[in-house]
Structures are given as C-alpha cells and as structure tokens.
Write a structure and sequence with these properties.
The protein is of the alpha+beta class and 170 residues long. The protein has one domain: Cathepsin D, subunit A, domain 1 (Beta Barrel). The chain is built from three helices and eleven strands.
C-alpha cells in the first residue's frame, strides 16, 4: 500500500513539474506554441539570405515567419516533416475554407489527426525566403499554433545549431 502511494506521488510530482515547464514555455498540451505567443527574439541578419536565431530560455527556437504577407508565429521543429498550421492559421491565411475535408492523416505527439495538404506560396524569415512550401492544416482543435518543419528547413543550404543559436542560410 505504501509503495503504491509513493509511486503515485512520484508520478504526480513529475507530471506537475513537466506541466509547469510547459506553461512557462508557453506550450499547449499538443506541444506547439499557441498562436498568440510571439517570437521572443527577432532573427539577426548576418548577410542577405542568412539569419541567426537565439533560443528562448526554455531552449526552443521561435520565430515570426511571413507567409505571403501575413505574420505567423512558429516554433522551429526539425522533427516535423512539413510546416504544420492550426485550423485557425489556415483560415487566416486563406489556404482552407469551411467546406474543405481533412482526409489526410498525420501523426502527432497526441496521436493521429485529420489534416489537409496545402502549398504555401512563400515562407520568409528575415531575408531567408523559400517558395512553394508543402504544409498541412490540421483539423479544428488538433493544434494551437504553427510548426516550422522540414518542408521549409530541408530546403535551406545550411541549418546549424550551436548552443543557443540557430543559423539558417538560403
């Protein structure tokens, strides 16, 4: 009995600790930065086509990307195959409509969810611009925020991380 109480207490303490970290980092239960969380540091341009990002105190890289002419706060995620947008971001950017079907299946940290494949005409961070970027818009309620995935990052000439810095070069 005592062993069960100690084990349950340990699990609850661990969950509380991780939940506190997630809240301090501005993360949602799905792991993505909420749409209202702005980038914490502007990208520094070292030369045209080359930007440097500084990690937040929580170790994540967040950036305000421009998709077309609209600003979209994104969490840089090298583990995401493609750029992933919340349903609300997709609506705001005009890449989905209310009649669209979310019949593509994608696997997230919270399991399999419906999504719609889209192509973003251009995604820009500072002077780093990539055109025709594959993306998915997740079904309503599946994610809050946006992830800058490998469909953008993989098209860079250079992506380098060192301590609290990330360099992107086009």
């Amino acid at each position: 009995m005592l062993k069960t109480v100690i084990l349950a207490s340990g699990v609850m303490l661990g969950a509380a600790y991780m939940a506190g970290d997630a809240l301090r980092a501005g993360l949602t239960p799905g792991g993505a930065a909420p749409a209202h969380v702005a980038a914490r540091a502007e990208p520094e341009e070292t030369r045209p086509g080359n930007v440097s990002l500084r990690a937040d105190p929580d170790g994540h890289f967040r950036v305000d990307a421009s998709v077309g002419s609209r600003r979209v706060p994104m969490l840089v995620d090298t583990g995401a195959t493609v750029v992933a947008l919340s349903y609300e971001n997709g609506q705001r950017l005009g890449v989905i409509s209310a009649s669209d079907r979310f019949d593509a299946r994608v696997t997230t940290a919270n399991g399999s969810v419906g999504a719609k494949r889209v192509v973003l005409r251009d995604v820009t961070i500072g002077s780093v611009r990539v055109t025709d970027v594959a993306a998915v818009v997740l079904a309503p309620g599946a994610m809050d925020g946006a992830l800058l995935g490998m469909s953008f990052l993989g098209r860079l000439r250079k992506l380098e991380t060192s301590r609290d810095r990330m360099v992107m070069e086009r």
